[in-house]
């Protein structure tokens, strides 16, 4: 096997996203966000920031409550699609680890995005800085143990004959409740509730589901190998996971979520 490109930077999320594919084949990502909106409970007239807004579907759902919502994402392609989807909403292309706004927010919301951000300390510092005292932060993302079975299968596949060993490609951040609560508290965000729970998640497109998931979300790994090696790798991962993650024609990703609600302490 030839040389791989280096693992992605551990900075802010630098993944290249395909918004059309994201919306058509992975809509479960934002469809699971409804409960988090309930937890945040946006109120009419409140200023709300949607951090890692993707193509803007949850930003729009929050805007329907009468809140004044701004979406922020690092991906120019996602922001372009969000503006096309919802031209009446403000969307900002920015780095979640280094952003500022002139006006503070009543609430910050983030669904299925923080596990892509490998500078969590900088992200939380930005969140704390833009919140009004008493402002809310509601977030859900991959927590400790997330996609353990998938990551194990990938590690095994990388050891298979013909596929070079490389354990440095994993681009995700999956903290425990204790780690994340401490991080929030260090930045003046008092935790009101925090849970870690398993949420096996059905992938779309039947037999193709795991392959499509890998192509979308593990692209940094797959793009670093030749087309033949990519096929071999995907087949290895499918073979490894089929006994536990494929049921009645559907693949399931072994997601574990951390869901937190915190409040900015008065200054
Ligand atoms: C997640 O939502 O937990 C996730 C999505 C893509 C890659 C890794 C994790």
Note down, in words, how this protein is organized.
With 267 residues, this protein is an alpha/beta fold. The chain contains eleven helices and eight strands. The protein has helices spanning 19-25, 28-31, 34-40, 57-63, 76-85, 120-130, 148-158, 177-186, 209-217, 219-222, 227-245, and strands at 47-51, 68-73, 90-93, 105-111, 131-142, 189-202, 246-247, 250-264. Strands 1, 2, 3, 4, 5, 6, 7 and 8 form an eight-stranded mixed sheet that branches. α6 (120-130) links the parallel β4 (105-111) and β5 (131-142). α7 crosses α11 (227-245). The termini are far apart.
How many β-strand stretches? 8
Please state the average pLDDT score: 90
Mass-distribution shape: globular
Q: Based on the structure given, which CATH architecture of the domain at 19-146 and 171-204 and 254-264 is correct?
A: 3-Layer(aba) Sandwich
Helix content: 25-40%
Low-confidence stretches: 1-11
The CATH fourth-level homologous superfamily of the domain at 19-146 and 171-204 and 254-264: Vaccinia Virus protein VP39
Largest sheet: 8 strands, mixed
Small molecules in complex: benzoic acid
Residue fraction in strands:
15-25%
Order of helices and strands: HHHEHEHEEHEHHEHHHEE
Brief account:
The protein has 267 residues and is α/β, with parallel strands linked by helices.
For the structure shown, list the relevant keywords:
globular, binds benzoic acid, 267 residues, single chain, alpha/beta, 8-stranded mixed sheet, Rossmann fold, 24% strand
